[in-house]
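@channel anyone free to eyeball this complex?
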Amino acid sequence: MLGRLDPRSWPITAKVPLAVAGLMVLVGLILSERVLARLADTQERHLRDLAQSYLDGLSSAVAPSMLRDDTWEVFDAIERARDLHRSLRPLETVVSHADGRVIAASDPRRYPVGSLNEERQRVQVAGADSFSFEAGADTATAVRKLSYPGQTVGFIEAVFDTRHLAAERRSVMFALVATNGLLTLVLATAGWFLMARMMRPVTILTNHLGLARSVSAVPIAEDVVMRQRGEFGRLFRAYNALAASMDERETLVKKLAEEERLGSLGRLASALAHEINNPLGGLFNALATLRTHGHLAHVRANAIGLLDRGLLGIRDVVRTTLAAYREEKRARDLAASDLADLQLLIAPEARRKAVGVLLDNGLDGTVPLPSTPVRQAILNLLLNAVAASPEGASVFLSAEVSGHLFVASVRDRGPGLPEAAAQVLTGPAAATPLRDGGLGLGLWTTRRLVSELGGRIEVDRPGEGGTVLRLIIPLRSGEELSDVA
Amino acid sequence: MRAEGSAPPDRRRVIAVLAAALVACRAGASEAAPIGEIRFGLTPVFLNNDLELLARLQSYLERATGHPVRLITRRTYQEITALLTTRQIDAAWICGYPFVTHRSELQLVAVPLWRSRPLYQSYVIVGNDSEARSVADLAGGIHAFSDPDSNSGFLVTRALLAEMGVRPEGFFARAFFTYGHRNVIRAVASGLAGSGSVDGYVYEVMVQIEPELTGRTRVLRRSEWLAFPPVAAPRTPLDETRLAKLAGALLAMPADPDGHAVLAMLRLDGFAREPASLFDAIAAKVDLLARAG
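replying in thread with the prediction:
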């Protein structure tokens, strides 16, 4: 869940449009800020100009009346100026003497004629000829000092309604946000489409590579390659060449594995021959004894007994070999007896190396797994273990079904499995089998067999030395069984 | 409808007449009026900006008298009165107060009839939020007068205060002139002044024309009925014939459709000849003030 939230794990078709959207939002924010700042500037300048013109007009209209203290003319001038400057929206205008006494105001009830407001006077003196407007404020205030040469006659203070300016800024901001939002959405969508289109060859390649991880590399269909031009075309062709060479190598490895099988067969065959050859000397001795001392009853019985036992031993060896290597007419399930067969099979080789093979057979009846690959895999591990074991040591084979898993483990007292060999057993399926000249081929074959059955191999090096190789194969489900049948 | 429909030609005619007058002026190279032109002065009785009214009045008078007519308006009553007493104009519609004070120099031409009588009242108005119940309650407030030469807009209130034994500058904290009855109403309605003296006729007309303005005021006191502002002429007329024609035109106004339209705009019923004694009540107030000093 958290992995999905990490932006690094998002697909590029999402990341690029999101990045575009993010940049657009950033650009939009910066532009909007600039536009609004400029708008506020323009509005203020405009307002200032209008206020100045308002005050100019009013000043020239009221100045003589102020000197005469003509309340009505000043009031009338204020009213006329208000009508003339409707666009400026004057809220209130106060004309006062230099000492702060009000001559007339647009709202006489609030600023009665002749009233003296010391606060107002102070503000007027401090802010003579000032203009104050803050963006977002509801009002702007302008003060004009009227003076005849050298003498202040009075002040005009005007307050203007600026709410419409704030409303204008708001509407501009909404327009900007809406436009930017729409543009961002459109560009992000376009970006998503473009990326999806541009990334299609990559997706094709990724899918093929994904297939190659589980099976062998599958070349990209020729018509798809033909359609693709430019670097992706070259990439596809390069991939197909790679797939072809992988395929060749796969074939080669299979052939090598077959040869290895034959090789191990050869070793077994020679061990078998040795097994048969050993009693043969005794049998010929018995025959020679019979020929010369056959008339002696006890000698004869003794020799015949010898022949009998020797031939029985040979028959057992031959039977086991037959059982192990007979042509399987049809796949059959792994049986408990298969493990006993393996013990018999390995016995000659083990004896040759003076190594004991002990079996802990935990199986009962049959296990729903194909017998041939499982037996071949275990046999390879046993051969390896016997080869690694010092003289007089023992190799332990145990097998059991645990839940839905078939587990077989082979333990030896050898010097420990080399890391490279362990890598072959547990590493990726495509790991090279031939890292040091054929040593790993049997193990690699085992790895392949187990992989094909959907299982895995665990390598364990217990503290007391040696190696434990654990073969873990999931049992086939009923459906698969019926498919096989 | 008829009044509005006929307005444009009248205006055009006014312009033509004015242009002709200008040409005449230039040709004569003199400030004197062209021969036969009637110069009629108007005080800012109520609608001092109503150009349509002026144009129609001019148009009617020109047609009715057969003379070119020039209407002369000034900001104050005093200026018009001065024009009249110095015999620069044939006649003028002035106020009863200057008529009384300049009685020796002037003669009465006609008196307008309002609600069928040559009489009107002076009102003292206050803002409709005012709690004043009588003129005495206005002490210490700000008062708006219309014109120092106006009967209803100054004299009546002034005389009332004199009866109370006070002078405006002592009674009110502050008093100023607005030089127009409508301005008095505006000053009181806006709160610039707490009270005002206004022509009752103008106020009643304004109640009909601009109810939203008068609605912000209420009448505190109505004076007794006084003589309506008259049309007066110099005691020695500039031209007897022209003055007679002008008087005739004024008296005949109700009978003429155009004259009737002008009267309707002025909310007047007509003009009448009245004896000068009609103005005795105003003269009494002037005397009162003279005695009060």
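from a first look: Residues 433-439, 479-485 of chain A have pLDDT under 50 and may be disordered.
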